[in-house]
Amino acid sequence: MVKKITGRFLISLATLYFMSVTVMAEESWGRDQFITPGDISIEKAVDRARQTVKMLDDMCKTFIVLITEEYVKDPTMFSAATLSKKVFFEMDKKGWYKASLIDATGTPNNPGNIPKNKFESDALEEITNGKSYYERVEKKQGKYYLMAATRVTAATEGCTACHPEKNLGDLLGAISYTLPLGRYIEQ
């Protein structure tokens, strides 16, 4: 009988000890050190949004190249960048994503193509230093966003019509994307 009580007592004591260690660890590390179901959901949302950025980037760069090759004969009349900005505006207006062009040449054809926030400045620095992709997740007004930027180079000879100081393959800038993660979170 004493062995049964002693055994139960030791098990209870061990349970209390491990519970208190867990509580102390939680307090010393802070709650942000533990993974919650919400964190897993955010990670999945980021992965989905990242795939969307890749698709959008392929699509945007493809239509920029195709428009440049097919229609840009006189850059003073029309440029693929102008059409891109119109598409970006419409997509933002519909709530899909925000996108903007960021100049890396130092002499933007459009003064509106300079970095507009810290993310775009950081992204441009990384892309100028050789990265082809830069991203981070930011929380604004209680909502999470994937902020991503991709490298833009002079992909065709037509690009040099608007950027005569550049050669094929030279860095022109970046496309900055902001996607709300809410649509990618499983409810």
Task: Report the radius of gyration as a whole number of Å.
Answer: 25 Å
The pLDDT mean sits at: 82
How far apart are the termini? 52 Å
What name does the CATH topology of the largest domain carry?
Answer: Beta-Lactamase
Please tell me the total number of domains.
Answer: 2
CATH architecture of the largest domain: 2-Layer Sandwich
* Percent of sequence in beta strands: 15-25%
- Helical fraction equals 40-55%
* H/E topology pattern: HHHEHEEHE
E-strand count: 4
Shape field: elongated
Let me know the largest β-sheet: 4 strands, antiparallel
Low-confidence regions? 21-30
Strand order of the largest sheet: 1-4-3-2
Number of helices: 5
Question: Which class of the largest domain in CATH terms?
Answer: Alpha Beta
- Structural class call reads alpha+beta
Features of the shown structure:
Tll0287-like domain-containing protein, Tll0287-like_dom, signal, Beta-Lactamase
Describe the structure.
The chain has 187 residues and is of the alpha+beta class. It has two domains: 34 residues; 149 residues, Beta-Lactamase (2-Layer Sandwich), CATH 3.30.450. Helix content is 49%, strand content 19%. The protein contains five helices and four strands, in the order H-H-H-E-H-E-E-H-E. Strands 1-4-3-2 form a four-stranded antiparallel sheet, with helices on both faces. A hairpin with a 2-residue loop joins strand 2 and strand 3. Helix 2 runs antiparallel to helix 3.
What is the topology?
Blueprint: H1 2-29, H2 37-71, H3 80-93, E1 98-103, H4 118-128, E2 133-140, E3 143-153, H5 159-162, E4 171-180
Antiparallel strand pairs: 1-4, 2-3, 3-4
